[in-house]
């Protein structure tokens, strides 16, 4: 039977990895270098593996150490969240719910969903963080987010639960007086004459856009600008003969900003969307509240 691990040892190990040096870590932790070395050795003996490789310039985690770094950071975060939740409860509030959301969910659903949750959970604070899959999934795994509302076409992970709520299909948008605005049955080659505005860091969407052109024997178009919001992207598209890609469910929002959906041959791509959260979430009630509110909003 394994012995319980002293949380202080994990914190000291993480500090050592962060500083990359026993001396620097011991100074930051305000303990002696021999004591820190002894404690890390004790941690290694408890786990039965070597956690650090010692070099002339410092230390680096082994493959076993990398696992403890990843898991240990989550442990540290959970301690911080627990302390914050206790303080919030003492003050009569219900803590903070950190929701990561893609621009589509942020634009179409999250304002009403967040308002509904706050109305039924007085004292709760919501941190709504916009992002794309390339940023949201890592933040969820690292414990920086409690739940994400986004596309679900990313690899399955043993620590993540996905709940499919709806399907999205991407379309091409341009300003209402764009040269292609009144064309029907637009081909991929017709789109090549124009520059594109895309969401920043949305490598998956950019890759899928490239695949659409590649399937038609054409090189990917030039992306002239990247931004982190649909509002900015749509505003920029309205200023010239640019194109952008967004889900077809954004058509009403696009029209309200002076854009129109182009009639393009075929489908750029479609994907499942919904919510994802860590299997070991510390806020199951809040997670369920988000899911229930989203379902109601989507069904409207």
List the helices and strands and how they pair.
Layout: H1 7-19, H2 22-29, H3 33-47, E1 52-55, E2 58-61, H4 63-90, E3 96-101, H5 103-108, H6 110-120, E4 125-130, H7 133-141, E5 147-151, E6 160-175, H8 188-191, E7 196-199, H9 203-215, E8 223-227, H10 230-238, E9 243-247, H11 251-256, E10 259-261, E11 270-278, H12 284-299
Parallel strand pairs: 3-4, 3-5, 7-8, 7-9
Antiparallel strand pairs: 1-2, 5-11, 6-9, 6-10, 6-11
Helix pairs in contact: 1-2, 1-3, 1-4, 2-3, 6-12
Explain this structure.
This protein is of the alpha/beta class and 300 residues long. The chain contains 12 helices and 11 strands. It has helices at residues 7-19, 22-29, 33-47, 63-90, 103-108, 110-120, 133-141, 188-191, 203-215, 230-238, 251-256, 284-299; strands at 52-55, 58-61, 96-101, 125-130, 147-151, 160-175, 196-199, 223-227, 243-247, 259-261, 270-278. The strands form 2 sheets. Strands 3, 4, 5, 6, 7, 8, 9, 10 and 11 form a 9-stranded mixed beta sheet that branches. The model has no long low-confidence stretch (mean pLDDT 86).
């Amino acid at each position: 039977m394994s012995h319980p691990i002293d949380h202080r040892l994990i914190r000291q190990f993480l500090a050592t990895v962060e500083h990359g040096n026993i001396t620097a870590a011991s100074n930051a932790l305000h303990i002696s270098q021999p004591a820190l070395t002894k404690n890390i050795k004790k941690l290694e003996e408890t786990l039965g593996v070597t956690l650090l490789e010692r070099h002339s310039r410092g230390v680096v985690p082994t493959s076993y150490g990398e696992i403890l770094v990843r898991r240990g950071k989550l442990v540290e975060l959970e301690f911080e969240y627990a302390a914050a939740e206790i303080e919030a409860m003492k003050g009569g509030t219900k803590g903070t719910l950190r929701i990561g959301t893609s621009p589509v969910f942020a634009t179409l659903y999250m304002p009403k969903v967040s308002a509904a949750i706050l109305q039924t959970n007085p004292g709760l604070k919501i941190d709504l963080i916009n992002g794309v899959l390339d940023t949201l999934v890592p933040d969820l795994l690292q414990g920086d987010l409690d739940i994400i509302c986004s596309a679900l076409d990313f690899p399955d992970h043993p620590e993540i639960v996905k709940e499919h709520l709806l399907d999205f299909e991407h379309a091409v948008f341009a300003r209402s007086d764009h040269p292609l605005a009144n064309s029907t049955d637009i081909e991929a080659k017709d789109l090549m004459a124009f520059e594109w505005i895309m969401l920043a860091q949305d490598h998956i969407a950019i890759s899928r856009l490239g695949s659409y052109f590649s399937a038609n024997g054409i090189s990917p178009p030039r992306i002239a600008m990247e931004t982190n919001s649909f509002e900015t992207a749509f505003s920029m598209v309205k200023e010239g003969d640019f194109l952008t890609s967004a889900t077809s469910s954004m058509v009403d929002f696009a029209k309200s900003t002076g854009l129109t959906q182009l009639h393009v041959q075929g489908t750029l791509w479609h994907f499942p969307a919904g919510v994802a959260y860590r299997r070991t979430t510390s806020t199951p009630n809040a997670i369920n509240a988000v899911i229930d509110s989203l379902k109601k909003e989507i069904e409207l």
